[in-house]
DNA sequence: CCACATGTTCATTT
DNA sequence: AAAATGAACATGTG
């Protein structure tokens, strides 16, 4: 599930529940989820500190670690205080099944996106906060990662992420596709071309503008590539707007049909299920060409 | 038992 | 060099 809209929802969730409260404890239940760090290093980096701000590119979420006394940067500028101590960033990647939850006072459990009855299982890392809150990173399938980095820009660069798909401008998007040899679907999913589009929303954007996933990326007309840019951004923005709860997306969205009996929301024809770029791809052979 | 699942990375081939 | 392909990773579901 975690493509760009889900991770953006996690980012907002983190902002809402976990910022500006000192961390009192770090519990790692599955060390394998850690990338180039240890439980001890996380404890040293986090305990007694606060999470202060978040940043997201594509499907990657970074959370800045700072001292509890550090105040908001706008306030700081106006008072011309010393620059904040560089305490680095926590990074999270959600793999195939990752998500966040928060609980407090024993009962209230809030999940990062529409999944009301999630069990308390598969918590891999838990941050205990000074207000009694517990901030949980879940990852059933263990493809996700959590770790520390000192430099946010270097973190994104090392992963060769292209411009974020939620805000990529038309000129950049068009230029990237025009020089791309190969099929549309793999191009959209290439995180170095545009960051954040995964299997489901790639299919949706292609469906919404009537483009076949196997089309040559560089072979689109100006009109087609403009429409594709618009749909990529629109599909992602709409999904962010409903906090990545797919049940709230329009009925004419094709992602509701990802099952063997799938039919086109606009004509009722059976959808084709094929492999592009090594991923299962749903598309309408009538509407998309 | 098998096939398949939203992601990324790596090796191999074209 | 770029792009495609397939495997691997770990775990659960149908």
Task: Describe the fold and architecture.
The protein has 2 domains: 4-158, MutM-like, N-terminal (N-terminal domain of MutM-like DNA repair proteins), CATH 3.20.190; 170-283, Helicase, Ruva Protein, domain 3, CATH 1.10.8.50. It has 8 helices and 11 strands. The mean pLDDT is 92. 28% of the residues lie in helices and 22% in strands. Strands 1-7-8-5-6 form a 5-stranded antiparallel beta sheet. A 4-stranded antiparallel beta sheet has the order 2-3-4-9, sandwiched between helices. A two-stranded antiparallel ribbon has the order 10-11. Strand 5 (98-104) and strand 6 form a beta hairpin. The structure holds a DNA duplex (14 and 14 nucleotides).
Question: Which descriptors apply to this entry?
Answer:
289 residues, alpha+beta, N-terminal domain of MutM-like DNA repair proteins, four-stranded antiparallel β-sheet, 8 helices, 11 strands, 22% strand
What is the element layout, followed by pairings?
Layout: H1 4-17, E1 23-28, H2 39-46, E2 50-57, E3 60-66, H3 73-79, E4 89-93, E5 98-104, E6 108-111, E7 123-129, E8 134-139, E9 145-149, H4 152-158, H5 170-178, H6 184-189, H7 199-208, H8 222-241, E10 272-276, E11 279-283
Antiparallel strand pairs: 1-7, 2-3, 3-4, 4-9, 5-6, 5-8, 7-8, 10-11
The chain binds a DNA duplex (14 and 14 nucleotides) through helix 7.
């Amino acid at each position: 599930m975690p493509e760009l809209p889900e991770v953006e929802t996690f980012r907002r969730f983190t902002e809402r529940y976990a910022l500006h409260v000192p961390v009192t404890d770090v519990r790692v239940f599955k060390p394998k989820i850690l990338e180039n760090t240890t439980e001890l290093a996380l404890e040293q980096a986090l305990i007694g500190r606060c999470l202060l701000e978040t940043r997201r590119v594509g499907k990657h979420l970074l959370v800045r670690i700072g001292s509890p006394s550090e105040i908001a940067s706008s306030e700081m500028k106006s008072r011309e205080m010393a620059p904040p101590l560089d305490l680095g960033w926590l990074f999270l990647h959600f793999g195939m099944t990752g998500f966040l939850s928060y609980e407090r006072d024993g009962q209230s459990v809030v999940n990062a996106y529409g999944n009301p009855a999630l069990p308390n299982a598969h918590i891999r890392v838990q941050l205990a906060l000074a207000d009694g809150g517990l901030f949980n990173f879940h990852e059933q399938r263990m493809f996700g990662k959590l770790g520390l980095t000192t430099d946010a820009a270097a973190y994104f660069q090392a992963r060769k992420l292209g411009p974020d798909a939620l805000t990529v401008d038309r000129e950049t998007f068009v230029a990237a596709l025009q020089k791309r040899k190969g099929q549309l679907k793999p191009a959209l999913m290439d995180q170095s071309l545009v960051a954040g589009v995964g299997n489901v929303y790639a299919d949706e954007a292609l469906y919404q503008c009537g483009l076949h996933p196997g089309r040559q990326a560089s072979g689109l007309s100006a009109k087609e590539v403009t429409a594709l840019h618009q749909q990529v951004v629109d599909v992602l923005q709409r999904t962010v707007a409903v906090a990545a709860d797919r049940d709230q997306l329009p009925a004419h969205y094709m992602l509701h049909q990802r099952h063997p009996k799938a039919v086109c929301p606009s004509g009722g024809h059976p959808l084709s299920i094929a492999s592009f770029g090594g991923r299962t791809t749903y598309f309408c052979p009538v509407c998309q060409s």
